[in-house]
Amino acid sequence: MWDVIETTIEKGVEFDPASEMAARWFPMPGDFPMVKVDPAVAFGKPALDKERVPTSALYRLWKAEGGNLARVAEAFEIPIESARDAIEFEIRTAS
After folding, report:
1. DSSP class of residue 12?
2. Contact partners, residue 46, CB within 8 Å, separation at least 6
3. How confident is the model at residue 11 (pLDDT cuts 50, 70, 90)?
């Protein structure tokens, strides 16, 4: 069991140095280093690290806009690359 935890969860966990407890988790740090899960952001749902926008919100708007990535980035005032990464994260983790 530890092998599974170590390979899938542990590598993306950031610890609070004061409490030594897990503070946030980057679920796919190799592929999507900008997506984090932090209880203080988006009620603990996956969100862009710097922009603090839930990936699901970006994905839903992208679908509503017929796949127009530029409109999504403009609506949330974020770089288009960040919007693309968030949407790709949602697509990949949907299964």
Report:
1. G
2. 27, 35, 36, 37, 54, 55, 56, 89, 90, 93
3. confident
What the block records as the tokens of 7 is: 């390979």
Write down the H helix ranges in the chain. Answer: 2-8, 55-64, 69-76, 80-93
- Percent residues over pLDDT 90 in the chain: 72
CB atoms near residue 5 (< 10 Å): 11
First to last CA, the chain: 23
* Tens of pLDDT, residues 36-68: 999 999 999 999 999 999 999 999 999 999 999
Alpha-carbon distance values, 18 to 13, 15, 21, 48 (Å): 15, 9, 8, 24
